[in-house]
Design goal:
The chain is of the alpha/beta class. It has eleven helices and eight strands. It binds adenosine-5'-diphosphate (ADP) and magnesium ion (MG).
């Protein structure tokens, strides 16, 4: 077996790489694929928290590289999905603890046993980025519809283009707020796609449920009522080759209407633009 190695990257920090890694990984595993998630954000790890696995980590990526354990010993099984594993980052070291060559070797080993190896990349375009992409042949570039994030995504796309091993990269636009797009207060997904001229793999709405799901250590794809969860499940399906239409962000979605209802209830809306 030769699994696919996909790096989740962005340039800018805080746009949703780790959230995306946890949710796509969980969704792919739920659909029956075997998945290993690698946290390469050494020193600032948090993929373990999002998966609720922080208390189960014995060995990390750095322990594997420094030969304190075998690769298999460092893989932490997810509590719910037996075909999902995490290779955690060390918290007490820095990005130089793992080289690009070393990570590439680990990805090659994992590719033999898993359908998908998903690499959660640290922010920036320096050493940590170069290491994270070293074993990948595909990339998902995460951005939010903000100029600063889009500019950094553009930079990352330039670097991915220059990397021969990367055969394809796709764009995921996160934290989209249809109401703000409608009132011209937010860049539309089409604008972002135009600026970056990159194929889309997903559009994820802003969803406060993501914050509570992070705190609970349970990815939002496990919540069947969540729009963001559904959007992430759709991303996983597209990765597996299914042709799934994108959410239409020009019309108020059920999600936008739902938020409006809550805002109305709390008296936060000056005027309701709920068209349902
Ligand atoms: P990164 O890994 O790129 O630094 P994270 O995945 O850690 O970003 O996300 C940064 C913050 O944004 C987290 O607090 C996360 O809960 C929040 N967040 C991410 N995506 C969404 C979303 N679609 N809706 C609401 N909050 C989100
Ligand atoms: Mg992160």
């Amino acid at each position: 077996m030769t699994g696919r190695v996909i790096v989740i990257t962005s340039g800018k920090g805080g746009v949703g790489k780790t959230t995306t890694s946890a949710n796509i990984g969980t969704a792919l595993a739920k659909s029956g694929s075997s998945v290993v998630l690698i946290d390469t954000d050494i020193g600032l790890r948090n993929l373990d928290l999002l998966l609720g696995l922080e208390n189960r980590i014995v060995y990390t990526l750095v322990d594997v590289v420094e030969e304190r354990c075998k690769l298999k010993q460092a893989l932490v099984k997810d509590k719910k999905n037996p075909n999902l594993c995490l290779l955690a980052a060390a918290q007490t070291r820095d990005k130089s603890a793992v080289t690009a060559e070393q990570l590439k070797g680990i990805c090659e080993d994992l590719q033999k046993d898993f359908d998908f190896v998903l690499v959660d990349c640290p922010a920036g375009i320096e050493e940590g980025f170069k290491t994270a992409v070293s074993g990948a042949t595909e990339a998902i570039v995460v951005t939010t519809p903000e100029m600063s994030a889009v500019r950094d995504a553009d930079r990352i796309i330039g670097l991915l283009e220059a990397k021969e091993e990367i055969k394809s990269y796709k764009l995921l636009v996160n934290r989209v707020r249809p109401n703000m797009i409608q009132s011209n207060d937010m860049m539309s997904v089409e604008d972002v796609v135009d600026i970056l001229s990159c194929d889309l793999i997903g559009v994820i709405p802003e969803d406060t449920g993501i914050i509570t799901s992070t705190n609970r250590g349970e990815p939002i794809v496990n919540d069947e009522d969540s729009q963001a969860g559904k959007a992430y499940i759709n991303v996983a399906k597209r990765i597996q080759g299914e042709d799934i239409p994108f959410l239409d962000m020009n019309e108020p979605t059920g999600f936008a209407a739902f938020i409006d209802k809550i805002k109305n209830f709390l008296g936060l809306n000056k005027k309701s633009d709920d068209k349902e």
